[in-house]
Design goal:
- The protein is of the alpha+beta class.
- The protein is 22% helix and 34% strand.
Length: 447
């Protein structure tokens, strides 16, 4: 008989984020998910029951399981990102419960930046609203591969199938136009528990999965070993002891891909090439290492390598540049302006930089571009061009979320200003995909 620990070690991990407009019932959905999947401790449930009774509520307010801040409970809204960890026999989960207000867009970006799936809530009475489109756009921008549309409060529209169908059709068309690869629509009632963990007895017209069933079975696509191999150097190990007089190793965590002894690699940004002669992991020599292992690489040649350099396969190295074009979400209260001097942190490398241009600011309501805004303020998403003092080896964010992302930092006090995604924005990516599809269709015709 296997132990619980052994069972969990055999399951996969899914990171997912939730988002929804104010009063769409997002916190109630998360609370229902935790409660019905038996992921709530007894003392937590008792505390929620006591608070609910003190407010004159007959049933426990499950939203209180996630809205932990006093201001959140008083206002009945979610302000900060709340992380919850739970597990079922089939899978382990890390949930980022993100706020729905416009002024907390930066919080959603933070919560969804590492997610493989996003649950977007919609009130069945209101349908797709401005904030729904905003959340879909952020999910597409962050390249979240799976999006679930949870049409909540179906009990308030008499569980009507036409209401659900119309909302699902509108949202799916919009999200698909942004390049979201997979969209699953599920009709639910978080308050009553319909289709959250258990199938609903009120919607026999729906034959799809419950929310939990979908979370347990959706393919997890965060296999970093299938990505371009990248190894940011974190530390140079040079013991110079009697036992290891000539040992020189480069320690760090493999960001993506696989490295093997004997493989030819390039060291960036210098571009020097060499060969891996050894890989040390957990005090032992191994022939192969893969993401996200922390290892030490030994190389054939004595090359000038320091923290922040990137080791990559010689035949699959990223381009080195000092001009970074990217989409950023501005997270600081102080604005980001053209001509501003910043620090750019990419993996383990931090370099001085200057904001050369802010070509546009994205209006998430209708995806229009506001040209030359001059600056970005908190929660703004826009295109920037940054010139760095030293060359960087960046991948496009569409190719690698790990090595295609970066931070812009205030050099005066270390405050994080913006979170950046190198390369094309989602709108450009979707346009390219659409053009490629049109080309493929044309190629099928025989003129």
């Amino acid at each position: 008989m296997t132990t619980t620990t052994e069972q969990l070690s055999a399951t996969t991990l899914l990171r997912f984020a939730t988002a929804g407009s104010v009063d769409d019932g997002k916190s109630t959905l998360v609370g229902r998910l935790l409660h019905d999947s038996k992921s709530v401790l007894t003392d937590q449930l008792e505390a929620v029951e006591q608070v609910s009774l003190s407010r004159g509520q007959d049933a426990p307010d499950l939203a209180l399981l996630t809205d932990g801040l006093r201001a959140e409970r008083e206002q009945g809204i979610t302000i900060d990102v709340a992380y919850r960890y739970f597990a079922t026999p089939r899978r382990r989960f890390i949930l980022a419960d993100t706020p729905g207000h416009v002024q907390y867009t930066r919080n959603m970006v933070t919560g969804a930046s590492t997610a493989e799936l996003a649950v977007v809530l919609v009130d069945a009475r209101n349908g797709v609203v401005e904030q729904t489109r905003r959340h879909a756009a952020v999910a597409a921008l962050l390249r979240v591969p799976h999006v679930v549309l949870a049409v909540n409060k179906m009990d308030l529209v008499d569980y009507a199938e036409p209401v659900f169908a119309a909302i699902a059709e509108e949202f799916t068309a919009y999200a698909a136009s942004l390049g979201v690869p997979e969209i699953t629509a599920i009709p639910i009632s978080a308050l009553a528990g319909d289709n959250v963990v258990e199938p609903s007895a009120h919607m026999d017209w729906y034959g799809g999965p419950t929310v939990l069933e979908h979370l347990e079975t959706v393919p997890v696509s965060h296999d970093l070993t299938a990505c371009h191999a990248r190894f940011p150097v974190q530390y140079v190990i040079r013991p110079q002891t009697a036992e290891h007089p000539d040992y020189r190793g480069y320690a760090g965590q493999i960001a993506a891909g696989v490295f093997r002894v004997g493989e030819a690699v390039s060291v960036l940004p210098s571009g020097r090439t060499t060969t891996i002669t050894g890989i040390d992991a957990l005090g032992a020599s191994v022939d192969t290492a893969w993401a996200p292992q922390s290892v030490t690489l030994r190389l054939a040649d004595d090359i000038d390598i320091s923290r922040g350099d990137l080791i990559a396969p010689a035949d699959d190295s990223p381009a080195v540049t000092r001009d970074v074009e990217a989409t950023v979400c501005h997270v600081a209260d102080q604005p980001l302006s053209v001509g501003q001097r910043v620090l750019l942190k990419h993996t383990t490398r931090t370099v001085k930089a200057i904001v050369k241009d802010i070509p546009s600011r994205l209006t998430l309501d209708d995806l229009s571009q506001h040209p030359a805004p001059g600056q970005l303020v908190a929660n703004d998403i826009g295109r920037v061009v940054v010139r760095t003092a030293e060359p960087l080896a960046l991948d496009a964010y569409a190719d690698s979320r790990r090595t295609g992302s970066f931070l812009l930092i205030d050099p005066a006090d270390g405050t994080t200003l913006s979170a950046g995604m190198a390369g094309a924005s989602f709108a450009e990516a979707a346009a390219v995909a659409e053009a490629a599809a049109d080309t493929a269709d044309d190629a099928a015709w025989d003129f």
